[in-house]
């Protein structure tokens, strides 16, 4: 069985084609600048080389057509007929009340639409991607895999906000979280790699990238997560504020006569590491600047690491301890200094980091704590696309 995984952003389309018998990727690519002049497709060939195809994609429909055309290309394609594709799985950022992945139907789409506004840029693109695939292959089964589904096991005390209850009952204002597909994947993979069944242990999973979140996974179920109604809440991120006193935003809006749109842009695109450094949201650049003595870059790193440490401590308290701390995603997998600072001075929890192993690890699946550490600390590279493919395969097999 071949499963196509599609991840549509507001101006991008990423895809992978899996052979599910061995979970191999036989085609992968990404279209950038959809709807913008100068769009192109970058294809990764099986030998690792890349090919760039310049092609104007004014719409997601045109981008999906280019994707299918490339998959069929005699030279760089992977299949001879689109009939070889058994199903398509889509990453959906905001799933609202959905607790598991779903085969897409018209009825399901209507149930999902009220939650689209929780991630407006992502949701519109997800819907366009689904419709574009349907336009080309109307009979192909398609599956939505919701990033928020993993967090639906949180108890009310964790997901409720202390607002008048009517905002929950009428508008469903609550914490939904994000990155759930990644948290679910690394929970499962950590269980296999560490020989620790998730349903018998307490994990803290740290998805640390340009967008970042931490989850408390108690005996296989998420009981808390750092992101909230939207991906804005929680950790300090590349361009997002993370946790902040709402009154600070109201004060800024009043003083600077900001519109709602300007305030949203400030919180999501101008803050975080970029806002503090006024340099970049790329942690590699910030690392280099801090090493060169840039005080603002060092401040950003200190703030970034400190908030990760605070959430780890909070979730250990919530679960009455922790058995394993897992780092994943771009920063979590590749930046040893962030892992080191987040785990320093946590001996009270039983955390002992192997500093040498940690400093040598750049994204390899490995235990980076010492043998006598009561809490295992590990790096587990995430693979959200593979989990989407597996969910899709499982649902389609039941049809």
From TrEMBL:
It catalyses: acetate + ATP = acetyl phosphate + ADP. It is an enzyme of class 2 (transferase). It is found in: Cytoplasm. PROSITE patterns: ACETATE_KINASE_1, ACETATE_KINASE_2. Its EC number is 2.7.2.1. Pathway: Metabolic intermediate biosynthesis; acetyl-CoA biosynthesis; acetyl-CoA from acetate: step 1/2. Catalyzes the formation of acetyl phosphate from acetate and ATP. Can also catalyze the reverse reaction. Homodimer. This is Acetate kinase. It comes from Alloprevotella tannerae ATCC 51259. The lineage of its organism: Bacteria, Pseudomonadati, Bacteroidota, Bacteroidia, Bacteroidales. The gene is ackA.
């Amino acid at each position: 069985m071949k499963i196509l995984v599609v991840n549509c952003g507001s101006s991008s389309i990423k895809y992978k084609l899996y052979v599910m018998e061995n979970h191999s990727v036989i085609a992968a690519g990404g279209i950038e600048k959809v709807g913008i002049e100068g769009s192109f497709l970058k294809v990764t060939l099986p030998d690792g080389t890349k090919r760039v195809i310049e092609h104007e994609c004014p719409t997601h429909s045109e981008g999906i057509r280019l994707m299918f055309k490339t998959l069929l290309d005699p030279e760089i394609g992977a299949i001879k007929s689109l009939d070889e594709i058994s199903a398509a799985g889509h990453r959906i950022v905001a799933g609202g009340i959905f607790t598991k992945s779903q085969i897409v139907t018209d009825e399901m789409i209507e149930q999902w639409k009220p939650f689209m506004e929780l991630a407006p840029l992502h949701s519109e693109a997800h819907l366009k991607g689904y419709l574009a695939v349907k336009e080309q292959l109307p009979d192909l089964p398609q599956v939505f895999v919701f990033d928020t589904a993993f967090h639906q096991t949180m108890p009310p005390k964790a997901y409720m906000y202390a607002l008048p209850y009517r905002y929950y009952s009428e508008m469903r204002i609550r914490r939904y979280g994000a990155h759930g597909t990644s948290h679910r994947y690394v929970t499962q993979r950590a269980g296999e790699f560490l020989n620790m069944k998730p349903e018998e242990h307490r994990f803290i999973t740290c998805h640390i990238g340009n967008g970042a979140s931490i989850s408390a996974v108690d005996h296989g179920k998420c009981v808390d997560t750092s992101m909230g109604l939207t991906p804005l809440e929680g950790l300090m991120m590349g361009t997002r504020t993370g946790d902040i006193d709402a009154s600070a935003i109201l004060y800024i809006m009043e003083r600077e006569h900001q519109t709602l749109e300007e305030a949203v842009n400030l919180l999501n695109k101008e803050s975080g590491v970029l806002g503090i450094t006024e340099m970049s949201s790329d942690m590699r650049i910030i690392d280099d600047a801090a090493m060169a003595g840039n005080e603002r870059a060092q401040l950003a790193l200190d703030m970034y690491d400190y908030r990760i440490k605070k959430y780890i401590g909070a979730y250990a308290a919530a679960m009455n301890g922790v058995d394993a701390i897992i780092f994943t995603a771009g920063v979590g997998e590749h930046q040893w200094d962030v892992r080191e600072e987040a785990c320093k001075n946590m001996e009270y929890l039983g955390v002992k980091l192997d500093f040498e192993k940690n400093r040598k690890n750049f994204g390899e699946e490995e235990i980076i704590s010492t043998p006598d550490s009561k809490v295992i600390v590990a790096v587990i590279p995430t693979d959200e696309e593979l989990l989407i493919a597996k969910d899709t395969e499982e649902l389609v097999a039941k049809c």
